């Protein structure tokens, strides 16, 4: 079985895209009029934020046809130029460069904008791009505050433009296959009662980011673009630059590890469970990075009531140890467990010893699963048979993905602009899923169980 998504057909973009003029989210939309010489059906793209993730996005979309790169904006000159050069050497044309997103949006005729700035800039950039008539692909987390995320949903509704949030697993064929075919259609887990997820990151990958001072913006620019601390204009140039490079460590610029890394797995918890949790309890520590404003390690438990019954999800994000299997989400049921990750190597499926053999054999015969190994009990003189459950058999998914992890999500965004698809993660669905995450730090800070109400989770 192949997990490739069908490739985009460019034949009838224009016909299809004009059909849905003026419709709202997920509906077809009209591309703007083009300058002479440019293919009429090209989507005109601008970038806001040209740092590390922008490079990942660009590399993931560079071979998607029907895109014309028009402009890029970044407050750091070297990053703007790198994007200018990257596009120039690949496509042999020049893009326009801007420091100010507002100016870029006012001067350029863009269909779509990709926002990959630090989290505290997502809401302002997304709202201004939607208001300027562009469709927006904005990186996760939607914002560092739930109010920011809500303002993005409101702007999407108000403008009728598309707003895709960068939870790229939502378009990943492997995740979609597991949810649609294995969980929904075949119910291979039985009742899912526990969910377990983590992002364990090594200490060596969690150090401060440093850069040559000559490459970095001056104090004036950093203050103008919000890297001072609110009204505090006393920060030194070094302090401003530290905040600029390491925005993830500061509470007014980011939600910290639970939002930066946890957003990926907790989004999958909520998407797969098809509901928001009813409460969260959490604990966090500045156990190693004592000077950082955010916790360096967080553990939390969400409680769900779903049509299948009650379930709990445990999540941990570590920035001091990578052992323990990297990053994944594990859905643990009475008949089977699906351990899934963006990394194929961390994806495993297990059949409980008591589950119906016949059902699983048929799934293998139908090509829906591959059997990898029969469970073998660990030996050793300390084994006491009556204590140990029979080990589960191990299975694997039948196909591989050949695309970069972000490519299907960007393809989904571009196809939706052309009226050929529906967004897999529009801002409203993203907020439903992200809302519980905004409450993990407060729960940990106050040693409190937060029972969610509409006020906590609503749009
Ligand atoms: N989906 C994923 O898998 C994934 C992975 C990594 C990062 N991300 C997200 O991507 C976003 C960017 O992360 P990153 O690692 O690239 O950060 P980064 O610091 O490397 O890049 C951010 C860029 O934005 C620029 N910038 C800052 N403020 C600006 C402003 N007001 N106007 C224009 N440019 C501005 C900076 O100069 C920098 O080049 C974050 O929201 C992050 O959570 C997503």
Question: What does the model show?
Answer:
The chain is of the alpha/beta class and 459 residues long. The protein has 3 domains: 181 residues, Rossmann fold, CATH 3.40.50; 207 residues, Dihydrodipicolinate Reductase, domain 2 (2-Layer Sandwich), CATH 3.30.360.10; 26 residues, no CATH class. It has 16 helices and 16 strands. Strands 14-15-13-12-11-7-10-9-8-16 form a 10-stranded mixed β-sheet. A 6-stranded parallel β-sheet has the order 3-2-1-4-5-6, with helices on both faces. Strand 1, helix 2 and strand 2 form a beta-alpha-beta unit. Helix 5 packs parallel to helix 6 and helix 11 crosses helix 14. The N terminus is likely disordered. The site of nicotinamide-adenine-dinucleotide (NAD) has 24 residues, from helix 2 and helix 5.
Apparent shape = globular
Largest sheet: 10 strands, mixed
Q: Write out the strand line-up for the largest beta sheet, numbering strands in chain order.
A: 14-15-13-12-11-7-10-9-8-16
Q: What is the helix tally?
A: 16
Structural class: alpha/beta
Question: What is the first-to-last residue Cα distance?
Answer: 39 Å
Q: What small molecules are bound in this structure?
A: nicotinamide-adenine-dinucleotide
Q: C-alpha Rg, in Å?
A: 23 Å
Query: Might you state the CATH topology name of the largest domain?
Result: Dihydrodipicolinate Reductase, domain 2
Strand content: 15-25%
Question: In CATH, what is the homologous superfamily of the largest domain?
Answer: Dihydrodipicolinate Reductase, domain 2
Can you give the mean pLDDT? 91
Q: Portion of residues in helices?
A: 25-40%
Low-confidence stretches: 1-30
CATH classification class of the largest domain: Alpha Beta
As for the number of domains, it is 3
């Amino acid at each position: 079985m192949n997990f490739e998504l069908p490739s985009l057909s460019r034949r009838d973009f224009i016909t299809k895209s004009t059909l849905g003029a003026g419709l709202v989210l997920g509906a077809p939309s009209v591309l703007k009029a083009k300058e002479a010489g440019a293919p009429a059906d090209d989507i005109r793209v601008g970038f806001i934020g040209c740092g590390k993730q922008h490079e990942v996005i660009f590399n993931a979309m560079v071979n998607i046809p029907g895109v014309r790169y028009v402009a890029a904006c970044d407050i750091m000159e070297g990053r703007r130029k790198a994007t200018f050069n990257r596009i120039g050497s690949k496509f042999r044309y020049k893009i326009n460069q801007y420091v100010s997103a507002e100016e870029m949006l006012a001067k350029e005729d863009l269909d779509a904008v990709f926002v990959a700035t630090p989290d505290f800039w997502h809401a302002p950039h997304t709202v201004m791009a939607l208001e300027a008539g562009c469709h927006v692909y904005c990186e996760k987390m939607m914002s560092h505050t739930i109010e920011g995320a809500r303002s993005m949903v409101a702007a999407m509704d108000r403008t009728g433009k598309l707003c895709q949030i960068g939870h790229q697993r939502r378009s990943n064929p492997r995740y979609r296959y597991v949810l649609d075919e294995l969980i929904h259609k075949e119910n291979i887990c039985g009742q899912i009662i526990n969910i377990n997820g983590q992002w364990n990151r090594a200490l060596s990958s969690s150090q401060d980011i440093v850069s040559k001072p000559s490459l970095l913006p001056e104090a004036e620019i950093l203050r103008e673009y919000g890297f001072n601390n609110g009204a505090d204009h006393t920060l030194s140039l070094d302090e401003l630059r530290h905040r600029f490079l390491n925005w993830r460590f500061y509470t007014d610029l980011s939600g910290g590890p639970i939002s930066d890394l946890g957003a990926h797995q907790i989004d999958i918890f909520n998407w797969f469970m098809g509901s928001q949790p009813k409460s969260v309890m959490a604990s966090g520590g500045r156990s190693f990075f004592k000077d950082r404003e955010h916790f360096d390690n967080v553990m939390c438990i969400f409680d769900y009531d779903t049509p299948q019954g009650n379930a709990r999800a445990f999540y941990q994000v570590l920035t001091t140890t990578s052992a323990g299997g990297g990053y994944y989400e594990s859905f643990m049921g009475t008949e089977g467990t699906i351990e899934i990750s963006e990394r194929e190597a961390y994806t495993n499926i297990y059949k409980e010893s008591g589950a119906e053999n016949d059902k699983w054999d048929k799934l293998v015969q139908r090509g829906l699963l591959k059997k990898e190994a029969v469970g073998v009990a660990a030996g050793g003189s300390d084994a006491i048979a009556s204590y140990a459950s029979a080990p589960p058999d191990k299975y694997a998914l039948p196909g591989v993905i050949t695309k970069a992890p972000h490519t299907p999500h960007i393809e989904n965004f571009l196809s939706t602009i052309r009226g050929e698809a529906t967004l897999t993660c529009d801002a409203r669905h993203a907020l439903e899923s992200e809302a519980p995450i905004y409450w993990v730090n407060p729960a940990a800070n106050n040693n409190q169980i937060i029972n969610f109400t509409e006020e906590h989770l609503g749009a």
